[in-house]
Amino acid sequence: MTKLCVLGLGYIGLPTAAMFATHGIQVVGVDVNGEVVDTLNNGDVHIHEPGLKTLVAAARKSCSLRIATAPESADAFIIAVPTPLIRAGDGRRPMADLRHVCAAAEAIVPQLAPGNLVVLESTVPPRTVTDVLLPILRRSGLHISGEAGSEASEDDLLVAHCPERVLPGRILEELVGNDRVIGGVDRRSAEAARELYASFVQGTMLLTDATTAEMVKLMENTYRDVNIALANEFSLVAEGLGIDVWEAIALANRHPRVNILKPGPGVGGHCIAVDPWFIVEVAPEATHLIQAARRVNDSMPEQTVRRVRQALLGIEQPVVACLGLSYKGGTGDMRESPAIRVVELLGAQGCRVRAYDPYVEPGRVRGQVCSMKEALDGANAVLVLTDHPEFVGLPASELAGEDGRLVLDTRACLDHGASQSQPPGRQ
Ligand code: SAJ
């Protein structure tokens, strides 16, 4: 039986570790955060994801998942640690912070044995495996498979990049069902990684080299970011023209080869707002479109606040009810959330914010209230920032109240009655 060590028990590492453990692999899940380890050892999970608690409990019950604070020897290692952005803030472009990847790789070096497989799952800039990971792994003294210097041997260290591509909210089903890109430093490494993932992946496994796999993952999220930026830019143009962007997009999407995404208050989450910068980092001169898209999406919270302020001109310290704080519907995840930026900007511009999010525990955000009623009472305007199921289909007229206050539905998720849809910025 294979023994696997998974480093990083976050949004990807924990579901992945539990998935392997419930498919015949002995797994040691490692996290450097003592609180995470304690939570898991107490039978709880620190991540809200449908089905995850049950899966982790099943893995723990069968004794195939152990939680630890340091890696131990194994047949295979998966590194699934965060790769956040370093935002220098002095005009320099953001870039990937690879400290956690380096620390995880350094931690496994003393445990590596001949014939081991090391997989990097974290999203990284192109060439991280070859330029950053391999130099650390070479410190083990093992020969890396496919590298010059000696004949291919069973003792070679196998190395691959297998980026995750699961959607938060559907992680467990997508881990199993999605096609998986497997990028080996050589063919033998890719085949070994395919064999490992075959224990639960039902999608097609697509073998390539490590740098291509790194680029593929970034291209997927950049494709989405650029297309959302296009929709957001359309919304700004439509506002100037006084037309309904949602209606225009719906009509354009009736073309058989057009699929415009949805405009909104900006792009959040730990992936789409981050990953395009990893491409920019390696090719700043060749990425004008990608950089422009990032700027458009990052400007949308300001645009949203401008629309509210314009409608409330003349009201001193207006009360603005903000519905939704997380980066997208159905989750309490507030990482890079444009809603948080909107709330901050409103506060900075003298508005009194009452923010309500049924998925975010009270006390996390300034101005947060515990119920929709509390948010709406006495508000001069209502701003819908997240398309939570609880908000979808609510009649806009009800939120507008008797006085017909402004209702800005940035997600077009309310029921706007006869008009069907509504352009942002209009009542
Ligand atoms: N958004 C829009 N308009 C749209 C679609 C999304 O404004 O038409 C906004 C959302 O509201 C949210 C942000 O974009 O703020 C991102 O949400 P998302 O649902 O598009 O994506 P994530 O970040 O939850 O997950 C993405 C997925 N990537 C793609 O769909 C290409 C997922 O498959 C990846 O695994 C994940 O990033 C990741 O880990 O990289």
What does this 3D model show about the protein?
With 427 residues, the protein is an alpha/beta fold. It folds into two domains: 3-203, Rossmann fold; 244-409, NAD(P)-binding Rossmann-like Domain (Rossmann fold), CATH 3.40.50.720. 37% of the residues lie in helices and 14% in strands. The chain contains 14 helices and 14 strands. The strands form three sheets. Strands 3-2-1-4-7-8-9-10 form an eight-stranded mixed beta sheet, sandwiched between helices. Helix 8 (210-241) packs parallel to helix 11 (288-311). The longest helix has 32 residues, at 210-241. Mean pLDDT is 94; it is low at 423-427.
Quick summary of this structure?
The protein has 427 residues and is of the alpha/beta class. The chain has 14 helices and 14 strands. The chain folds into two domains: 3-203, Rossmann fold, CATH 3.40.50.720; 244-409, NAD(P)-binding Rossmann-like Domain (Rossmann fold).
Q: Could you list the spans in which at least 5 consecutive residues all have pLDDT below 50?
A: 423-427
Query: Quick check: average pLDDT?
Result: 94
Q: The biggest beta sheet, please? A: 8 strands, mixed
Order of helices and strands: EHEHHEEEEHEHEHEHEHHHHEHEHEHE
Q: What percentage of residues falls in helices of 4 or more residues?
A: 25-40%
Summed up, the domain count is: 2
- Number of H- or I-type helical stretches: 14
Sheet-strand content, in percent, reads 5-15%
User: Largest beta sheet: what is the strand line-up?
Assistant: 3-2-1-4-7-8-9-10
Could you name the CATH homologous superfamily of the largest domain?
Answer: NAD(P)-binding Rossmann-like Domain
Q: How many β-strand runs?
A: 14
CATH third-level topology of the largest domain: Rossmann fold
For the record, the CATH architecture of the largest domain stands as 3-Layer(aba) Sandwich
Identify the overall geometry.
elongated
Structural class: alpha/beta
What separation lies between the terminal Cα atoms? 62 Å
Computed Rg? 24 Å
Instruction: Tell me the name of the CATH class of the largest domain.
Output: Alpha Beta
